[in-house]
Amino acid sequence: MSQEEINALKRACFYSIPPNKLGYCGPVESRKLLQEFISNPAEESAEIAKEQLTHFTALFPYLELIATENNLQPFDSEVIEAYWIGNSLLENVSFREIQKTILSFQHFGLPHSIAKKKAKELPDGIIPHHSMHVLYVNFISQKVDPIVKNLSSCLVQWAKVLEETPKGIRAKGIELFSESGELKLREKEKTLQNSFGLKLAPGELVSVHWNNVVEQISEDELKRLEKYTKATLEAIRL
Fold first, then answer.
1. What angle do CA 149, 16, 170 make, to 5 degrees?
2. What is the pLDDT of residues 14-45, one digit of tens each?
3. Which domains does the chain have, with CATH numbers?
4. pTM score of the predicted model
């Protein structure tokens, strides 16, 4: 396995662990196995990590979708980046195939009536970014209520590090809120968990999932994450 493949798979694990830790996505035993791969990225642990991630129902169907529509494999680095951060691969996915993926969620716990309604009313121009799943499909798991606070936490956010404190990473980030029934973003200073022990300096940019710092990101990655998240918000407002 190449270093690029290892890094891509680690990235998928980093984003998947926070919701798994809360019991919202993936098998109960996955967190331990994903962390074992991160600590010891050998061929065997990589295959185990991949197998575990196939059971993350708000992740793997999208990786398969993006990969198939771009003649790639689900765990290719560009595919993983497309779903969590955003890139041009998303724009090659057909509207009909997104609808089919949404309909498939009825096999993983989303009620048939909701899956059918969501597929039928899918907004034109929407793309299969993680923000689409959060803001349009909402949650497949019945363990988490689709209230704005939870939607905001599940959304992959961006933030700028201010300082490291005993309580975590203080950062200037964003949050989702509702105004007159419309979902919007606003800036918010917050303290984030640093569960993966990243060494971060003031001014560095990071992505955030379920109040956990996931990874340091570049200016370009932030711009793409912001672009595709805001595109989703615009699509569901129409």
1. 55
2. 999 999 999 899 999 999 999 999 999 999 99
3. 3-137 (no CATH), 148-237 (2.30.30.140)
4. 0.95
